[in-house]
């Protein structure tokens, strides 16, 4: 259990650094619940971590009743990563890179964080949980469902961010996906 908590904390720190140091300064998005949290942040200036927790509550209620093991495995990941995202928000602007470098490096950091948590059978929750529910009901591949959700979230984000950030956000999602699976 100590190993799992340690990896969740370290993974959450990677995730938070990737988001705050590299994505937010250029208004870049990731997919999933993190992307939704960033969209809300860019529109209403609400803390992304808090938004992620609030938007995840309905999914965690469903998980409590129908997928209890995911509830227990992911709750720690959700809480730690969301908390770290908000705590590390003071790191914004510490490093100044061009948007393409930020999208690649930010994607690497986020991907490392998520990948570490997934290897310990935990996650940041949110849309991953929703994708697993949909996959169970439809027999679709969960990876394809997550990819489709990410594309929809980035498309919605295109109304909030400029076209350059929109294109770089696809780089972020691609890099996160690649690094997560390594």
From TrEMBL:
Spans traversing the lipid bilayer: 7-24, 44-63, 70-88, 100-118, 139-159
Membrane topology: Multi-pass membrane protein
Main location: membrane
InterPro entries the record matches: UPF0750_membrane, YitT
Superkingdom: Bacteria
GO CC list: plasma membrane
UniProt keyword list: Cell membrane, Membrane, Transmembrane, Transmembrane helix
Location within or outside the cell: Cell membrane
Listed name of the protein: Uncharacterized 5xTM membrane BCR, YitT family COG1284
Source organism of the structure: Parageobacillus thermantarcticus
